Amino acid sequence: MTSTTLALMVLAMTAGSALAADPVAVLTEIRHGRGEVLVKYAGQADWQRPQPLLALHPGDQVRSDGDARAVVVFTGGGGTRTVTAASGPLAIAAPTAATGSDRGRALVGSVAAFLLGRRPETTYRSLSVRSLQAPPVILAPRRTRVLPGPLTFEWGGPAQARYTVRVLGPSGGVHWEGTDLPRAPLAYPASAPALQPGARYAWELITPGRPAQRAEFEVLAGDAAARIRAGLAQLAPAGAGQSPNTLAVLRAGFLFSEGLHGDARRELLAAIARDGREPGLHVVLAQVYDAMGLAELAAEAHERATALAREGAR
Hints:
There is one protein chain. The chain folds into three domains: 21-117, no CATH class; 153-214, no CATH class; 222-312, Serine Threonine Protein Phosphatase 5, Tetratricopeptide repeat (Alpha Horseshoe), CATH 1.25.40. The chain is of the alpha+beta class. Helix 3 runs antiparallel to helix 4 (244-257). The protein contains seven helices and 15 strands. The strands form four sheets. A five-stranded mixed sheet has the order 9-15-14-11-12, with helices on one face. Strand 14 and strand 15 (213-219) form a beta hairpin.
């Protein structure tokens, strides 16, 4: 074997290892402003405009020009980094492992790993023509776990219609029923039979002249609920000083990873109501809607994320 052949083999093996390296960070926020956020992939010469929630590998670089800003969240114990023109380019390297004493940083790393594990994205199919009179559809709770405590039922459908909400207990019997209801969020009444931690329930949405809709949810047991509430409390100080949008992505990602799709949806919708310009929020919302079986809403959220990414790259 010649030295030239050996060198080529080593080069090929090195390149293959680089390509096969797992992502170690996710780009949670892209704010172009009057500048531009750019990424250069390992082994490439050109800088490119990144996509929302981009997976980053060792050797990649992120930079911001002008007043643009990007936020990168690392797996492991790498924490978060904000990239601005003043900070200079950020070279992505494998993060150090999180220590047991820094649970907040470890949780941030695990959420980043979960978000990276959701890729590649689902191909969302959007209807070319949407009905002006949307049929009744259950929004929440739907295919989700819920924390013990107050619960709100949400659905879509014709505004002028009247609705019946029927909650079914673990044995399948009627647990509670409300009739002649308007299309509006409905808080589960405090006077109704309590929803038991650790139990699974279903609820039906009934509208005259329409097929009944049905969805299931599980009320978390006390120990699981306490763990999740503690995690949410840890994420708040872990995100101190960083963008509210990135913190919303982390909190929603944590809830999503624990199967609390309804809470993740509410976290994202609240963040979008405050600042709907961040495409990453809409990307995660599309993934949550997809997990809930709401294909049309998932497609709408994905379309919005794509449009925002294009607008920001102009």
